[in-house]
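Risk register update: the risk of archive-format incompatibility is retired. Evidence:
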Amino acid sequence: MSQRGFQSVLFQDPASRAAPPAHRPAPTPAQVAPSAPGERTDWGTEDDLMFLFSQLGAHIRSGINPAEACHNLSLRAPRKDYARALEEMSRFAAEGRGLSTAMARWPYLFPPHVIGTVRVGELAGVLPEACDRIAEQSQKASGLRRMFWWISLLAWGTVVASPIGYVIVVALARSVEIQGTQGSSPRPADAIADALRETIFGVPGLAVALALFGILGLRQYWRSMRFRANRHRAVTWAPLVGARTRSEAIESFSWALAHVSRAALAPRTAFVEAMNAIPNLWLLKDFEAVASRMTDKSPISENLKEIRWLPPELVPLIATGEMTGDIGSQMRFAVESARSESEFHTTALKSRIGCWVLLIYLMGTLIASYFLYGVFYPVLMRTLLGE
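Archived output:
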């Protein structure tokens, strides 16, 4: 009841009852301009989600209604776009609409699985637990991203530095040619300056500029909303990361199904609500294909057999839950199993970070060696030998 904004009162003898505390009314949300669906903002980060939902869960668990909780958090939000989103969530909650409905209007701040998890919390009456789960998921994702920060830095540094290094090496080689062909033997600094001008404003410089713009454009497209499903697809192919992603998807689906199965929903409806809590959009497509063939009377366990990458023990657990009428208790075992599997792959990833850094370092060394021995040294030797 407290999750819906009601205040619990202990019934006592009227003579001994103390004066009840003043009820804390939900504030009227500030008037904000209704945002268009899919409003464009900066991307939200895992750290933003972790801090936001850890506080939101604590507010609701303490008995503060969702409208007041979102309003309070909007006043302390470090980012203006999150403050506006929280005000809109407060307004929706005050009007009797769900928080997940308001969050869906801010797709750059709230990923689909976050909206789906909040929706499960609203349907099953476990909104504080749903907020805690989002905060925990975001914390793990943030830690995993920090693990790959050095790899990303080295990889992008190698990609960007390679064409720039090529221009510098070509310019140095050209400066050697200038010094060798001009009888007056110009100063090295003048020869290098002339060579840089020829290289930068010539064909090599134009090619490098186009390459850099192409790299930056590819990076922006990689991070775009349109390419998000393909990003998730690439993650499923990566060694160890793909296995961890599948374990996380199974854990999220099992957790959501354990709660929505107690909300008196039809099997297909419960399945759809549970699958929307899966973080990876590419893996979600397999569940969407199953949902499109289900009916309201279709057993979930029979249809899940079509998804080949699911662990073999998941379907029997759901079937047992359907037979006994208690899917939730069976899903707890699936959640723990998937969580252990995910932690195992995370530990394995940590042990492989050093290997990947070494591979990128060797790749950069090979590129630098090619520029030095394949481009610069031949010109230098021809000039010294007078060829």
